[in-house]
């Protein structure tokens, strides 16, 4: 159950862009995020919804008085990123919602260009460029490819699509720093809990949107800073993350593979399982077992 700690936002938001932030356990990380919003435009905080998913309201307890304009919602238990992100978007009153991880900080105001681009009713999502502490691009125009029946996202900068006029089609909008058309987000049911606790949920959401004929774009000239050590990496070890990524990658492939890729997928899973056994790769073996168990439910 969630508890709202502030009154509903003002209703004069028909043309506004809201912000939705799922937060977990780290007040300082969220403070930097909210302060970056205030630095861009302090009035924007009144259109910001934060879901404190700590399970005990600890983050809201620390920051509520510092940021009273924000709409605070507390989850009574730790629900995880996917339900918390969905709740934050659902509770926003704005037609366009900027979904931010609590470890992301704004570096500029994307609203002008975003408002222009969202005039296209087919535009579902607009992903922003993220940079690291050195100013190097972390997340660009994403490319998803298929390799013998299994989907793969190419993360290297050289593999990402070059933006023309600051904008380009992207295979998915990064869930930690992207704007979504709220009505379409809710029509799709938001992020699917199949991908709990994290990773590939945004790839899946974008694929489902594109299947409906909607568009996903990347906006290169709107920059955010994304901390290297966010909620996931600060609470999960590398092996557990890899296990989850592989399980969700297979779940995505099973759902979205078509044609020859769908035919190849069972053979690819068998190949990966044998290769994992030969290499004594216990995490990959566990990930495949997790996926296969989920298919039997």
Task: Please describe the structure with a list of short key phrases separated by commas or semicolons.
single chain; 10 helices; eleven-stranded mixed sheet; two-stranded antiparallel ribbon; Spore Coat Polysaccharide Biosynthesis Protein SpsA, Chain A; 297 residues; 13 strands; 2 domains
Give the domain tally.
Answer: 2
Poorly predicted segments: 7-15
Named CATH topology of the largest domain: Spore Coat Polysaccharide Biosynthesis Protein SpsA, Chain A
Shape: globular
Write down the overall mean pLDDT: 92
- The count of helical stretches stands at 10
Q: Helix fraction?
A: 25-40%
Structural class: alpha/beta
Query: What order do the SSEs take from the amino end to the carboxyl end, as H and E?
Result: EEHEHEHEEHEEEEEEHHEHHHH
Q: From the structure provided, what is the oligomeric state, counting identical versus distinct chains?
A: single chain
CATH-assigned homologous superfamily of the largest domain: Spore Coat Polysaccharide Biosynthesis Protein SpsA, Chain A
C-alpha end-to-end distance: 26 Å
């Amino acid at each position: 159950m969630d508890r709202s700690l502030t009154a509903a936002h003002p209703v004069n938001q028909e043309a506004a862009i809201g912000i939705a932030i799922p937060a977990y356990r780290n007040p300082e990380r969220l403070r930097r995020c909210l302060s970056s919003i205030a630095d861009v435009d302090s009035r924007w905080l009144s259109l910001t919804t934060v879901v404190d998913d700590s399970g005990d309201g600890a983050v809201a307890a620390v920051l509520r008085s510092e940021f009273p304009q924000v709409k605070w919602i507390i989850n009574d238990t730790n629900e995880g990123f996917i339900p918390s992100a969905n709740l934050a978007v659902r509770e926003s009153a704005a037609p366009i919602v900027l979904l931010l991880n609590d470890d992301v900080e704004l570096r500029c105001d994307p609203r002008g260009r975003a408002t222009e681009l969202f005039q296209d009713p087919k535009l579902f999502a607009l992903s922003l460029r993220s940079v690291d502490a050195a100013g190097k691009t972390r997340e660009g125009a994403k490319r998803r490819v298929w390799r013998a029946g299994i989907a793969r996202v190419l993360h290297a900068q050289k593999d990402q699509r070059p933006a023309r006029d600051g904008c380009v089609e992207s295979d998915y909008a990064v869930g930690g720093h992207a704007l979504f058309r709220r009505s379409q987000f809710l029509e799709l049911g938001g992020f699917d809990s199949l991908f709990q606790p994290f990773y590939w949920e945004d790839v899946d959401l974008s694929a489902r949107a594109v299947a409906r004929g909607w568009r996903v774009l990347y906006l290169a000239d709107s920059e955010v800073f994304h901390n290297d050590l966010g909620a996931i990496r600060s609470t999960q070890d590398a092996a557990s993350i890899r296990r989850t990524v592989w399980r969700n990658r297979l779940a995505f492939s099973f759902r979205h593979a078509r044609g020859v890729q769908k035919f190849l997928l069972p053979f690819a899973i068998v190949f990966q399982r044998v290769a994992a056994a030969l290499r004594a790769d216990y995490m990959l073996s566990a990930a495949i077992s997790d996926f296969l168990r989920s298919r039997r439910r």
